[in-house]
Amino acid sequence: MTSYALADTGVLTGRSLRHVLRSPDTIITTAVTPIALMLLFFYVLGGAISTGSDESYVNYMLPGILLIAIASGVAYTSYRLFLDLQGGIFDRFQSMPIARSSVLWAHVLTSLVANLVSVAIVIGVALIMGFRTGASVGAWLAVAGILVLFTLALTWLAVIAGLSAKSVDGASAFSYPLIFLPFISSAFVPTASMPGPVAWFAEYQPVTSIVDTIRALFAQQPIGSDIWVALAWLVGILVVAYGFAIVIYRRKLS
């Protein structure tokens, strides 16, 4: 993006963030579901789940809970984008001397900020529940980088859904499979404990490598090849989703 496109993106992002600040229940609602799941798994089901390690179960499941928080949050991007389209905001912006790409990037950056706030809230609750880590500053930065990539990848998928949806419900419904995906991964139980076909799917779907990488960083354990698999998935999804979103956006405006 050129300098004027960056300036336009900054102005439009400020507009979107003001809307979020006027209705903070969006962030609160996004954080409630993963926190409720965390409480349920830790205090109700945790005692019956064997992870094969001595670490606290809250430490074990937190990476998956963070991904669920983000998957829940990106639905609001799709929802807000759909409302902007239906309200004619995009047509107004098109008649103004602003960069076209800045409209989408404003929604994406707003999603990033809102979801990072939700993630911080979830981590705060996890600390109250007993989550502890000796991770270094570098490890925390690596976790943050992975979560940022995950948010961007899912947000661009949300942009596609928001631009393609025919109704409000359709705009946000796309996130349901994303929220469900961590349950068929190593997020809550080791994949080896699952039946054969389910274990194979859980082992090779993207969430497992991401969860295992974050868990290893928090536990100060060797990461191995998981981080490269996770990055390959995240970058691949981000590039493909971005490409499709831009194509759909241009068709909408043509």
UniProtKB/TrEMBL annotation:
<keyword id="KW-1133">Transmembrane helix</keyword>
<dbReference type="Pfam" id="PF01061">
    <property type="entry name" value="ABC2_membrane"/>
</dbReference>
<feature type="transmembrane region" description="Helical">
    <location>
        <begin position="227"/>
        <end position="249"/>
    </location>
</feature>
<dbReference type="InterPro" id="IPR013525">
    <property type="entry name" value="ABC2_TM"/>
</dbReference>
<feature type="transmembrane region" description="Helical">
    <location>
        <begin position="103"/>
        <end position="131"/>
    </location>
</feature>
<dbReference type="InterPro" id="IPR000412">
    <property type="entry name" value="ABC_2_transport"/>
</dbReference>
<keyword id="KW-1003">Cell membrane</keyword>
<feature type="transmembrane region" description="Helical">
    <location>
        <begin position="173"/>
        <end position="192"/>
    </location>
</feature>
<dbReference type="InterPro" id="IPR047817">
    <property type="entry name" value="ABC2_TM_bact-type"/>
</dbReference>
<keyword id="KW-0812">Transmembrane</keyword>
<dbReference type="GO" id="GO:0043190">
    <property type="term" value="C:ATP-binding cassette (ABC) transporter complex"/>
</dbReference>
<protein>
    <recommendedName>
        <fullName>Transport permease protein</fullName>
    </recommendedName>
</protein>
<feature type="domain" description="ABC transmembrane type-2">
    <location>
        <begin position="25"/>
        <end position="252"/>
    </location>
</feature>
<keyword id="KW-0472">Membrane</keyword>
<comment type="similarity">
    <text>Belongs to the ABC-2 integral membrane protein family.</text>
</comment>
<keyword id="KW-0813">Transport</keyword>
<dbReference type="GO" id="GO:0046677">
    <property type="term" value="P:response to antibiotic"/>
</dbReference>
<feature type="transmembrane region" description="Helical">
    <location>
        <begin position="61"/>
        <end position="82"/>
    </location>
</feature>
<keyword id="KW-0046">Antibiotic resistance</keyword>
<feature type="transmembrane region" description="Helical">
    <location>
        <begin position="27"/>
        <end position="49"/>
    </location>
</feature>
<dbReference type="GO" id="GO:0140359">
    <property type="term" value="F:ABC-type transporter activity"/>
</dbReference>
<feature type="transmembrane region" description="Helical">
    <location>
        <begin position="137"/>
        <end position="161"/>
    </location>
</feature>
<dbReference type="InterPro" id="IPR051784">
    <property type="entry name" value="Nod_factor_ABC_transporter"/>
</dbReference>
